[in-house]
Design brief:
single chain; alpha+beta; DNA polymerase, domain 1; 3-stranded antiparallel beta sheet
């Protein structure tokens, strides 16, 4: 004789009631999402109240990975379930974990999931935005991904972070170095490099930034084996990163898929790399003194020392803007975006190209609007 058929997953059986009036207990069996059937009970002052409390308890009940996670679970508990599911690069995982530990858990970790409404999430993120705008923007991404996990497992019905409206910040206008400014800066860096041995590499790095528009991590990951001296091309095949698992290392692929590109070098770029190949040991074009990848933080420190106070506003990203703006003026934004390794020219235009406020000369076209029709009046009329 066959036994009783099991309950379908996510459903409950008949409800039984016990206890005196004022302390009624409603009891049922519920088949959880791990396939196990468990007893679930709730208490109320009447049978109707106990039944309503039981229904609410069953409505919020689900399991994730064998560990219970319900609408009454906290944001901190959700983060503990979410972090192990990440599949991004280790550096990205480290960045996400940092936002969780430093900002999200201290600010809202004790909230129950049902308490994380759009209004409350917006208030938290706006308060963070007032003190750390960049961290608020990144924390919003992390929090939205966490809540997305809760939605996918039917713990909550909608992602409350999706409708959050952040305070609109003042949009910064892109400002790119002019050719004349680049030349003046190069003279300044060359004088600084001449003052002490070992500084020439910083000047070479600046020149290669100007020849390519690379990201700092990409530049530090360049290898002589990436260069085709005959064709005058440079393959961007990696970046230098630091993460909690691998430490400082050369990652064998760039920041994104669109970052994998082959650049045609100007003549001064080819000659620079050829000269460094004759004096640098190993395959890295810009290694540290031990021949290993250079720490990006150390490179930034050297650059700050080299530029001094006069050129304080100039960062490595300033050269990307100068390269993008110059190429855009000559060949258009799409070519500039491919040079920089962006997936579309929208990113390039928004963050790297200084707007050209000079409209094209259309004066001859507009002159047509100045043509006068001469009307001859007949005296006899």
């Amino acid at each position: 004789m066959r036994g009783r058929a099991p309950l379908p997953i996510g459903t409950s059986g008949q409800v039984s009631y016990s206890g005196p009036k004022g302390k009624v207990v409603a009891l049922t069996r519920f088949r959880d999402f791990d396939g196990q059937t468990r007893r679930v009970s709730a208490q109320g002052q009447s049978r109707a109240a106990a039944d309503a409390a039981l229904k609410e308890k069953l409505k919020s009940r689900t399991h994730l990975g064998g560990l219970e996670l319900t609408r009454d679970s906290t944001i901190a508990e959700l983060s503990a379930r979410w972090l192990p599911t990440l599949t991004q690069s280790q550096a990205t995982q480290d960045a996400y974990r940092q936002k969780v530990v430093r900002y999200i858990i201290p600010g809202m970790g004790a909230w129950r999931l049902w308490e994380a409404t759009t209004g409350r999430c917006e208030a938290f993120l706006r308060s963070l935005q007032a003190t750390a705008p960049a961290m608020a923007s990144q924390s919003r991404v992390v929090l939205s991904l966490m809540m997305g996990l809760a939605v996918r497992y039917d713990i909550i019905e909608m992602n409350p972070v999706r409708e959050v409206m952040m305070q609109a910040g003042e949009r910064k206008q892109v400002s790119a170095l002019t050719v004349e400014e680049v030349q003046a800066l190069r003279i300044h860096i060359a004088q600084w490099a001449d003052e002490k041995a070992g500084r020439a590499a910083t000047l070479d790095a600046m020149d290669l930034f100007l020849a390519t528009g690379l990201r700092p991590g990409e530049l530090l990951a360049l290898q002589f084996s990436d260069v085709d001296f005959r064709a005058g091309t440079l393959t961007i095949s990696g970046t230098v990163k630091r993460d909690s698992v691998n430490g400082l290392h050369r990652q064998k692929f760039p920041k994104s898929e669109s970052g994998k590109r082959v650049l045609t070098l100007p003549l001064f770029g080819v000659e620079l790399i050829r000269r460094r190949k004759a004096s640098v040991k190993g395959d890295l074009i810009f290694p540290n003194r031990n021949g290993d990848p250079m720490e990006p933080a150390n490179f930034r420190r050297l650059w700050r020392e080299a530029r001094g106070d006069v050129w304080e506003a100039v960062k490595p990203s300033s050269f990307r803007k100068a390269v993008a703006t110059l190429i855009e003026r000559e060949s258009g934004s799409l070519i500039a975006s491919k040079q920089l390794g962006h997936s579309s020219d929208a990113i390039t235009k928004k963050h790297y190209i200084e707007r050209d406020r000079n409209a094209p000369d259309s004066s001859l076209i507009l002159e047509k609007l100045n043509q006068r029709v001469i009307v001859v009046h007949d005296p006899a009329v």
